[in-house]
Hints:
This protein is of the alpha/beta class. It has 5 helices and 5 strands.
Amino acid sequence: MDDRDESTKVAMILVxxxxxxxxxxxxxxxxxxxxxxxxxxxxxxxxxxxxxAPVGEALLKAYYEIGKAELSADSAAALKAVVDAAVANPxxxxxxxxxxxxxxxxxxxxxxxxxxxLGAQSALVAAGIPAERIMLRKPEVTEGSGGAREAxxxxxxxx
Length: 159
């Protein structure tokens, strides 16, 4: 009977070691893959071009002066509608799309549209919207007959 108790103890120790090794392996693999696939909130908020496609009409279109990236006083006041909609829908993201026209230097235009979108994002964060809820789309060229004013805009959607 003593040999049997000793064998049982050895078997239990071996089983415990094997189970511990498997658990450690699974945790190690899980922790490594979690770091690769889970983007940080700050990356999501600041990432331009990785946002979903816009859905529906824009809640607000903010228009800008030529070569400027600052929100006009009218647009800053109208931003309250976006903040109110974001607060009323706490699980939705705020999608910001910056636009520019095709004239001039494309890289400079895209940078200006990007700066406008970043400024709009900063205004929302200053109004109390968490940066993690705000996504920026890659700057887009306005096509068609919308006119120069339409090309100098940022659109806001809560979706």
